[in-house]
């Protein structure tokens, strides 16, 4: 990272945080001296001879996977053979085996994206592997301990990774049926002690407090439960509880949304909190905390489609706390709903997607299929005969439903705290689906630590279904997880009758151009939506906006209108006459017409980009329409691209 980034990051810190960071770095440099020879610090050295791990009766049922062809993101691993724990996604490179503080893993490093390596060392295949191939799981765990000495290698730069790894190790350990030899047990006890000390010394507090802090606290709690007979274990459990109770109420809003403004990381946090509940005495958890977790799960239930498709706003890295198998293709949210249903006795949350059922079986230890899951089709469409509107004021979103359509209007703040790290500049963007098919989509996140132009594109304003002014995003990017500052947003009106609409504004361009962007979404009829954009302020600035389409079959550009062909309907957009309209599909120059579905990869989609010149107090209207049974239109002269 360059000097500018460090200065911008320092601006976000309070004096207390700066002092904490300074103390942390002193500890890191001291550890480079103390642990410079890893051969002198095997994991068993961290545990006393009389220390004992307490194994809790964690659930689990036999779960198989293809361990010879196990996929992590876009790479296949043979877990039955040699595993390169220093694997890099940059071909011909390997991560170094030195002390982690000497490893350059930031953007621009010569090794690749460390996030890919971290996914391997989370060992999230261990719990399911332990149910069907215990010997292989033990061999892999023993191999990891030998080849990843304490504080050495890429597995250690982030304390959240240490926390996630312990959860995987401990769950598998509790499922092993055959006894372990004494030296192996001592090594695992040492891992628990060393991991707990590392997490406690490197908690992501102050301006870094987000999903990392919650996951770190859950990992610390699981270590505390494994060492519950020890004084240090009891201390870690207490500390973890304090953090989790406080952060649950801070990061999860009363309406169920999350401060980070990332739907994926809301799921990640829920996954972590469910792991906390799994090992906790429910009676000690404050009622308000349980209510907040339940409300967040309810929000997920309202947001996702029957097949698990979800509004992919904000950052997404495909990371989870528990992975029932190695697929990244099926959404994890139905599985989270099943666990939430199990904890909170909410049968309406149950989903019958394949991995969701497997996850519920594993978490409950019940085979065969858990009773009570409705045998409903994931393609079933529940139509709304009359307009339905639900506003999430805390999270800055309005959900509108009518007929077979669902529309999410984003009028949210940029993200959590003053860094807004995982937020995207998507104020006043629109996400729309019809017949459970995503039509107007969010493009995802691409990747974090690779090409920063790609990283910046996916979180820029033009990558969302809204409008940028003056070829600038609504907020200024100053780092991979850092924004200069957020903007103000406000929902001014939202009604179902006599007309069905929602109206909001944001101030992202007020200081730079003296312009406020207001947008009104008016659903005029079940098949027709009108988007009205108003720009109070000075003119003379060029504007550019986008509509990014889901998996449509073909598209036709008719000048100031566009028609997109989906499976059983046509989606059309009619633009004002002064707009210039272009269609991109997998374009490199400019980089446009791409959607990221799996972390580190992107695929071509159709992006409609429109541009126009602002005059003073400019206003315009764009009409969206749905025409079903499109075959009737094929006799027309329309030619799709």
Distance between the termini: 43 Å
Task: Write down the overall geometry.
Answer: globular
| Strand segment tally | 23
Please state roughly what percent of the residues sit in beta strands, choosing from under 5%, 5-15%, 15-25%, 25-35%, 35-45% or over 45%: 15-25%
Which helices and strands, and how do they pair?
Elements: H1 3-11, H2 15-34, E1 70-72, E2 75-77, H3 114-121, H4 126-132, H5 134-147, H6 159-175, H7 182-201, H8 211-226, H9 231-251, H10 263-279, H11 287-303, H12 333-344, H13 354-364, E3 384-392, E4 397-403, E5 405-410, E6 429-434, E7 437-440, H14 452-458, E8 467-469, E9 477-479, E10 482-483, E11 489-495, E12 500-506, H15 510-513, E13 517-525, E14 528-535, E15 542-548, E16 554-557, E17 561-565, E18 569-574, E19 580-585, E20 594-595, E21 603-604, E22 606-613, E23 618-628
How would you explain this protein's 3D organization?
The two termini are 43 Å apart. The longest helix has 21 residues, at 231-251. This protein has helices at 3-11, 15-34, 114-121, 126-132, 134-147, 159-175, 182-201, 211-226, 231-251, 263-279, 287-303, 333-344, 354-364, 452-458, 510-513; strands at residues 70-72, 75-77, 384-392, 397-403, 405-410, 429-434, 437-440, 467-469, 477-479, 482-483, 489-495, 500-506, 517-525, 528-535, 542-548, 554-557, 561-565, 569-574, 580-585, 594-595, 603-604, 606-613, 618-628. The model has no long low-confidence stretch (mean pLDDT 93). Helix content is 31%, strand content 20%. Strand 9 (477-479) and strand 10 (482-483) form a beta hairpin. The chain is globular and about 80 Å long. It is of the alpha+beta class and 641 residues long. Helix 7 (182-201) runs antiparallel to helix 8 (211-226) and helix 8 (211-226) runs antiparallel to helix 9 (231-251). The chain has an eight-stranded antiparallel β-sheet, with no helix packed on it. Strands 3-4-5-6-7 form a five-stranded antiparallel β-sheet, with no helix packed on it.
């Amino acid at each position: 990272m360059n000097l500018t980034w460090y200065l911008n990051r320092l601006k976000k810190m309070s004096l207390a945080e700066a002092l904490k960071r300074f103390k942390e770095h002193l500890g890191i440099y001291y550890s480079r001296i103390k642990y410079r020879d890893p051969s002198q610090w095997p994991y068993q050295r961290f545990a006393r001879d009389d220390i004992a791990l307490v194994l809790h009766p964690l659930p689990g049922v036999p779960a198989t996977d293809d361990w010879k062809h196990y996929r992590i993101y876009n790479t296949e691993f043979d877990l039955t053979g040699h595993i390169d724990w220093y694997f890099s996604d940059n071909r011909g490179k390997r991560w170094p085996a030195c002390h982690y503080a000497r490893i350059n893993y930031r953007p621009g490093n010569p090794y690749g994206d460390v996030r890919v390596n971290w996914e391997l060392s989370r060992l999230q295949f261990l719990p399911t592997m332990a149910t069907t191939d215990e010997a292989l799981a033990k061999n892999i765990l023993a191999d990891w301990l030998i080849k990843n000495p304490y504080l050495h290698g890429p597995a250690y730069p982030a304390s959240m990774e240490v926390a996630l790894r312990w959860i995987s190790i401990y769950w598998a350990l509790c499922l092993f049926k055959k006894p372990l030899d004494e030296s192996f047990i001592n090594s695992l006890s040492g891992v628990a002690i060393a991991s707990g000390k590392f997490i406690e010394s490197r908690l992501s507090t102050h301006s870094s407090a987000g999903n990392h802090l919650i996951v770190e606290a859950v990992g610390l709690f699981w270590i505390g439960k494994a060492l519950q007979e020890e004084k240090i274990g009891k201390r870690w459990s207490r500390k973890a509880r304090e953090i989790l109770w406080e952060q649950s109420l801070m990061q999860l809003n009363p309406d169920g949304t999350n401060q980070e403004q990332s739907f994926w990381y809301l799921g990640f946090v829920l996954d972590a909190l469910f792991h906390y509940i799994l090992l906790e005495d429910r009676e000690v958890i404050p009622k308000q905390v349980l209510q907040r977790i339940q409300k967040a799960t309810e929000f997920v239930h309202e947001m996702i489609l029957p097949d698990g498709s979800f509004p992919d706003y904000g950052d997404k890295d495909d990371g989870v706390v528990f992975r029932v198998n190695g697929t990244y293709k099926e959404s994890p949210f139905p599985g989270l709903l099943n666990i939430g249903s199990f904890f909170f006795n909410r049968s309406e949350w149950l989903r019958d997607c394949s991995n969701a059922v497997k996850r519920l079986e594993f978490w409950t230890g019940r085979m065969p299929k858990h009773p009570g899951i409705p045998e409903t089709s994931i393609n079933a469409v529940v139509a709304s005969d009359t307009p339905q509107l639900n506003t999430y004021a805390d999270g800055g979103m309005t959900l509108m439903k009518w007929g077979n359509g669902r529309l999410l209007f984003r009028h949210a703040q940029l993200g959590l705290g003053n860094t807004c790290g995982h937020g995207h500049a998507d104020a006043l963007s629109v996400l729309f689906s019809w017949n459970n098919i995503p039509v107007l989509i969010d493009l995802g996140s691409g990747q974090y630590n690779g090409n920063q132009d790609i990283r910046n594109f996916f979180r820029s304003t033009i990558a969302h279904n809204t409008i940028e002014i003056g070829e600038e995003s609504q907020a200024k990017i100053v780092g991979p997880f850092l924004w200069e500052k957020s903007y103000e947003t406000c929902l001014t009106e939202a009604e179902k009758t006599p007309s069905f609409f929602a109206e909001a504004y944001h101030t992202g361009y007020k200081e730079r151009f003296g312009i406020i962007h207001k947008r009104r979404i008016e659903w005029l009829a079940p098949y027709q939506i009108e988007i009205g954009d108003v720009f109070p302020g000075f003119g003379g600035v060029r504007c550019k906006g986008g509509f990014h389409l889901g998996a449509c079959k073909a598209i036709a550009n008719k000048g100031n209108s566009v028609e997109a062909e989906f499976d059983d309907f046509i989606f059309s957009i009619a633009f004002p006459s002064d707009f210039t309209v272009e269609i991109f599909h997998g374009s490199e120059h400019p980089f446009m017409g791409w959607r990221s579905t799996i972390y580190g990869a992107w695929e071509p989609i159709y992006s409609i980009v429109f541009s126009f010149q602002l005059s003073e107090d400019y206003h315009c209207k764009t009409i969206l329409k749905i025409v079903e049974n499109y075959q009737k239109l094929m006799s027309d002269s329309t030619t799709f691209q």
